[in-house]
Write a structure and sequence with these properties.
- The chain has a four-stranded mixed β-sheet with strand order 1-4-3-2, with helices on one face. Strands 5-8-7-6 form a four-stranded mixed β-sheet, covered by helices on one side.
- The radius of gyration is 15 Å and the shape is globular.
- The protein is α/β, with parallel strands linked by helices and about 120 residues long.
- It is about 20% helix and about 40% strand.
Length: about 120
């Protein structure tokens, strides 16, 4: 049996972050407590939002040092993600642009974590 992948983001306020990600992902958390929220993503990956102050051992990295990336089917889907993120009030760190790996844009969550939508370049 293959292990199930989890991505954990350390956040200041798990409930506020859960509300944010419910809007961005278009789905509710499957688990929620005062210090943690969990989302089931497509493909079986789980996204956990863990209250930074309760993580043990304490994390040393700052938010924004990594990204949560979403591979999309084409440029139009990246443009649609960008438009939706703007409607939701996400700060946009990078407007849609073409890079060597594909077409991409980047938004930022309330804790400074980067969200990247991209359509891979055809090789």
């Amino acid at each position: 049996m293959s292990p199930q992948p989890f991505v954990l983001l350390y956040v200041a306020q798990p409930q506020a972050s859960a509300d944010f990600y419910a809007r961005v992902l278009g789905r509710p958390a499957v688990e929620s407590s005062p210090t943690f929220a969990l989302f089931a993503l497509e493909g079986g990956t789980m996204l956990g939002l863990w209250q930074r102050a309760t993580v043990a051992p304490a994390p040393s990295g700052a938010p924004g040092a990594g990204e949560l990336a979403f591979a999309l089917g084409g440029d139009a889907e990246v443009d649609a993600a960008h438009a939706r993120w703007r409607e939701l009030g996400l700060p946009i760190a990078q407007a849609p642009t073409r890079m060597d790996f594909g077409y991409t844009c980047v938004g930022v969550d309330p804790d400074g974590h980067r969200l990247r939508a991209f359509a891979p370049a055809s090789r």
